[in-house]
From TrEMBL:
It comes from Oxalicibacterium flavum. Keywords: Acyltransferase, Cell inner membrane, Cell membrane, Membrane, Transferase. One of its GO terms (cellular component) is plasma membrane. This is Lipid A biosynthesis lauroyl acyltransferase. GO terms for molecular function: acyltransferase activity. GO terms for biological process: glycolipid biosynthetic process. The keyword Oxidoreductase does not apply. It comes from the Bacteria. Pfam families: Lip_A_acyltrans. It is found in: Cell inner membrane. InterPro entries: LipA_acyltrans. The keyword Transferase applies.
Length: 289
């Protein structure tokens, strides 16, 4: 019942101006920063590891901004799930545009790192093209239903569970669907390599490189960030990586992390610092958390 009330609240919110929803989200984020001590500790630990050159005051300021941005993104999902296509097109600026010709020409991985606006990036693609992606079933059935419907309401979307493995994704890519891939979570040491990320090492999925090698897919990064003054979002499609993955899958994974690091430095408050990105450590290393 609590989740249904929350979903009803998000549905009501989506009728309001984005500027109101965004400010409300920032207020909620400030509250959560003050009271969610565990997540605040994770966020500050990540920032200390990744930005040792910053003062503690700056890390605390960015951590609070991150909580505000993340809470804002949650409340704004009502717009993504229920707003009209016309409103979404007004709020989402796409630069330079969804690469439809490249998607049609050959298998494509749309690489979307975990910035708070990643759902916006998915909607930007979905407004123009069907896609496939990995999906984690939600524990609450009502939320799961709304989430699935919201992510597939404009174009056909094939969502596969992580437990199904990579084979369904490969089949969908052979059918011409771009693979919308979230590459930068810590899922343990399996199918991962310990490669540099900022000033430490992170267990990083080698799947982007392996799938690109197996399918001949091009990798096109896509990242959504906030426009200033609550004007909406900008979704940037970067040029396809040349000579990727090459002969060395570990080096290709390092290359991916370097790209994500560069983007996170551009908008540090919007990268997903509340996740235990460095949870899995190399043998012999203690937990950083």
């Amino acid at each position: 019942m609590t989740m249904r009330i929350m979903l009803g609240f998000l549905w009501l919110l989506h009728w309001l101006p984005l500027s109101f929803i965004a400010r409300l989200g920032e207020a909620v984020g400030s509250f959560l920063y003050a009271y969610k001590k565990k997540r605040r500790h994770i966020t500050l630990t990540n920032l200390r590891l990744c930005f040792p050159e910053w003062s503690e005051e700056k890390r605390e300021a960015v951590a609070k901004q991150h909580f505000q941005a993340y809470a804002r993104s949650v409340l704004e999902r009502g717009i993504l799930w229920w707003a009209s296509e016309a409103r979404l097109r007004r709020l989402i600026r796409i630069e330079p545009g969804v690469p439809l010709e490249q998607i049609a020409a050959s298998p494509t991985i749309l690489l979307c790192p975990h910035f708070v606006g990643l759902d916006v990036a998915g909607v930007a693609v979905m407004l123009e093209s069907p896609l496939c992606s990995i999906y984690t079933r939600q524990l609450n059935d009502a939320f799961d239903k709304v989430l699935r419907r919201g992510r597939s309401r404009f174009r056909p979307v094939k969502l596969f569970s992580r437990e199904e493995g990579v084979k369904p994704i490969l089949r969908a890519m052979r059918e011409g669907l771009p693979y919308f891939m979230l590459p930068d979570m810590d899922f343990g040491a399996r199918d991962a390599a310990f490669v540099p990320f900022f000033n430490t090492t992170a267990a990083t999925l080698t799947a982007p490189a392996r799938i690109a090698a197996a399918t001949g897919a091009k990798v096109i990064p896509v990242i959504a960030t906030y426009l200033p003054n609550y004007a909406g979002w900008v979704v940037r499609f970067y040029p396809a990586w040349e000579d990727y993955p090459g002969d060395d899958l570990i080096e290709a994974t390092r290359r991916m992390n370097r790209f994500i690091e560069e983007r996170a430095r551009e908008t540090p408050a919007e990268y997903f610092w509340t996740h235990k990105r460095f949870k899995t450590r190399p043998p012999g290393e203690d937990s950083v958390y």
